[in-house]
Amino acid sequence: MKRQLILENGEVFIGKAIGAKCTNDGEVVFNTGMTGYQEILSDPSYCGQIVTLTYPLIGNYGINRDDFESINPAVAGLIVKQSADVPSHWRSEMSLDQLLQNKNIPGLEGIDTRRLTKIIRVHGTLKGRICDMDIDVNEAVQELKQTVLPTDQVSKVSTKASYTSPGNGPRVVLVDFGAKKGILRDCIKQQFDVVVVPHHTTAEEILRLQPDGVLLSNGPGNPKDVPHAIEMVKGILGKVPIFGICLGHQLLALACGGDTEKMRFGHRGSNHPVKDLTTGKFMMTSQNHSFTVRPESLKDTDLKVTHIAVNDGTIEGMRHTKYSAFSVQFHPEASPGPEDSSILFDQFLLDIKTFKKAGIQYA
């Protein structure tokens, strides 16, 4: 069965339908990872986006029960060059097509994903629609141009209620803006006593939990669409150690007086080189973000840049010069991707111990 992808600039791609037989609109983006399609599909940060995978062979090793980053994927659609009908791996429990059908995600295969990626690189991320062949292209283009992308992605993927993952170490409050399971897994490795709270939790409510540290998770969309989270970060800054990841990194910048902006096509993949300005060393990182911190906006703040992207020089890490707070734009928990930067969870633990040794009390 043929289906089509219609872009807001009038470009049309016709391919074979996979997954759910429904029509979905979304922001069309691309990911350059060669593996990790299951983790990508279930990453809450892709909420409302149609993901194009640039590697041509997808689904080869199937889907298993352990590699999900969330229970219910929020991705709007998937586009691949070729989807494996018969996966081959001892852990495989279903095919990619079966997963897409089970989770009601429309997909498209057999199009020129290289050409689509080049279009996105030139024009930036574009709104698109995966739909049947009987949809009028001109009408769809006009509708896409008039469509305003939603601003409530975080509320869709954040936990609705607090829950705990008990541990024998320091208590860490994980603020869930769309947290990947990998972050919680790395917290468990550190034996943190984790309390996961919803995105709208206030600074006062967090401090009442008497945390030893606060972890600001990844999440979808524009950080300026969650102003309550910016106020929360302002309320805990200096009172408890903070570690921000991805969206959490951007929220820390905004809370400290910095600014963010949307990138042309973002960073999405598991092979992004980053330089640590403190050590001079390089690491390969997993990334997924549309927004970045504006370097010039940090001049009058107390934030110091600690990491930069090798490919384009964008800010990849910061540390507060007065308070115990640091953040990174990339994903130290990987999932999928290299684990070069997982040591940052060790750094968070060290910050917590140093803070406690100093005997600073909650204000």
Automatic annotation (TrEMBL):
Q: Does the keyword ATP-binding apply?
A: yes
Keyword list, A-Z = Amino-acid biosynthesis, Arginine biosynthesis, ATP-binding, Glutamine amidotransferase, Ligase, Nucleotide-binding, Pyrimidine biosynthesis
Residue positions binding L-glutamine: S45, G219, G221, L247, Q250, N288, F291
GO terms of molecular function: carbamoyl-phosphate synthase (glutamine-hydrolyzing) activity
Quick check: keyword Nucleotide-binding in the entry? yes
What metabolic or biological pathway is this protein involved in? Amino-acid biosynthesis; L-arginine biosynthesis; carbamoyl phosphate from bicarbonate: step 1/1; Pyrimidine metabolism; UMP biosynthesis via de novo pathway; (S)-dihydroorotate from bicarbonate: step 1/3
PROSITE patterns in UniProt: GATASE_TYPE_1 (PS51273)
Q: Pfam families of this UniProt entry?
A: CPSase_sm_chain, GATase
Q: Where is the active site?
A: C246, H331, E333
Question: Where on the tree of life does the source sit, at the highest rank?
Answer: Bacteria
Spell out the InterPro entries in the cross-references.
Anth_synth/Amidotransfase (IPR050472), CarbamoylP_synth_ssu (IPR006274), CarbamoylP_synth_ssu_N (IPR002474), CarbP_synth_ssu_N_sf (IPR036480), Class_I_gatase-like (IPR029062), CPSase_GATase1 (IPR035686), GATASE (IPR017926)
CDD domains in the record: GATase1_CPSase (cd01744)
Query: Which catalytic reaction applies to this protein?
Result: L-glutamine + H2O = L-glutamate + NH4(+); hydrogencarbonate + L-glutamine + 2 ATP + H2O = carbamoyl phosphate + L-glutamate + 2 ADP + phosphate + 2 H(+)
Top-level EC class: ligase
Q: Which residues form the Carbamoyl-phosphate synthase small subunit N-terminal domain?
A: 1-131
What do we know about how this protein assembles, alone or with others?
Composed of two chains; the small (or glutamine) chain promotes the hydrolysis of glutamine to ammonia, which is used by the large (or ammonia) chain to synthesize carbamoyl phosphate. Tetramer of heterodimers (alpha,beta)4.
What exactly does this protein do?
Small subunit of the glutamine-dependent carbamoyl phosphate synthetase (CPSase). CPSase catalyzes the formation of carbamoyl phosphate from the ammonia moiety of glutamine, carbonate, and phosphate donated by ATP, constituting the first step of 2 biosynthetic pathways, one leading to arginine and/or urea and the other to pyrimidine nucleotides. The small subunit (glutamine amidotransferase) binds and cleaves glutamine to supply the large subunit with the substrate ammonia.
Q: What NCBIfam families does the entry give?
A: CPSaseIIsmall, PRK12838.1
Spell out the family assignment given in the record's similarity comment. Answer: Belongs to the CarA family.
Return the protein name.
Carbamoyl phosphate synthase small chain
Protein's organism: Scopulibacillus daqui
What is the gene name? carA
